[in-house]
Design goal:
D-Maltodextrin-Binding Protein, domain 2, 10 helices, 11 strands, 6-stranded mixed β-sheet, 271 residues, alpha/beta
């Protein structure tokens, strides 16, 4: 066998081995990487205390829908929450019981303006202990001698207290009854003062008055036009650590499933 023939044979063998190697690789493609599970997310929601019951049910429902998202609520008076956010407390979403606190944060560029929406509305009511025999039927009845003390939210930090003061001033009652006022840090505290009989009456939201376990009855609803509309705005905060998850939760809050929950607890959806 001459050298030329030998080189031809070697070349043919090399080509055959290369082809076999490529063919084998095509038949045994590496398996596709397994889909990675969604990373757990902690979403911090600072919300008005009056939203407590509705948000508790929403939390349970959302856990089933988005099991990787853990909702962490911080419930307090809206003014208190505003101050906490201004001081750098962790928060992805702010759900206020009044526009004022949201406006103040927005003025300091702490709110994602594009995400802000008015979500639900409420009513302001006068409540008495469920066993009360005083016969109160209107806000003017707070002036009666039988009402030694009535409770309302702190007017500096609690929207319900601010609305209550507006109503009493509009009705010409504030100067007559302000010395009877016992101030609570939020509406749920006011509700407790009334339900335990520590005061003869209190000013809260309708949703608090009809909340599970509330041992009160509604004596009167604040007259139309006696105070600013009770509107609850919600927004993603500009310092949110989880902006995408926050946007998704806001979209869920505005959806039909949450609408049913909010209405169940006495809220009406904002137009």
């Amino acid at each position: 066998m001459n050298k030329r023939t030998l080189w031809i044979i070697i070349g043919m063998l090399a080509i055959a081995l290369l082809a076999a190697g490529c063919g084998g690789g095509a038949k045994q493609a590496p398996p596709a990487p397994a889909a990675q599970p969604a990373q757990p997310v902690e979403l911090y929601v600072s919300a008005a205390a009056s939203l407590k019951d509705a948000l508790a049910e929403i939390q349970t429902n959302y856990q089933k829908k988005s099991p990787n998202v853990k909702l962490i609520y911080n419930l307090a008076a809206s003014g208190t929450l505003q101050k906490q956010i201004e001081q750098g407390a962790p928060a992805d979403i702010f759900f206020s019981a009044a526009p004022k606190q949201m406006n103040d944060l927005e003025a300091k560029n702490l709110v994602n303006k594009a995400s802000r929406k008015n979500l639900v509305e409420n009513k302001l009511v006068l409540v008495v202990p469920e066993n009360s025999t005083l016969g109160l039927s209107k806000f003017e009845d707070i002036t009666k001698a039988g009402v030694q003390k009535f409770a309302m939210g702190e007017t500096a930090t609690v929207p319900a207290g601010q609305y209550g003061q507006q109503a009493l001033q509009k009705l010409g009652l504030w100067d007559k009854v302000k010395d009877k006022a016992v101030f609570g840090k939020d509406v749920r505290t006011v509700l407790t003062y009334v339900s335990t009989g520590n005061v003869e009456a209190g000013i809260v939201y309708k949703t608090d008055a009809v909340s599970p376990g509330a041992k009160v009855k509604i004596a009167a609803t604040a007259p139309e036009g006696s105070h600013d509309p009770v509107i609850y705005p919600v927004a993603v905060l500009s310092g949110a650590k989880q902006p995408k998850a926050a946007e998704e939760f806001l979209a869920y809050l505005a959806g039909p499933e949450c609408k049913a929950v909010f209405e169940k607890y006495g809220f009406t959806m904002s137009k």
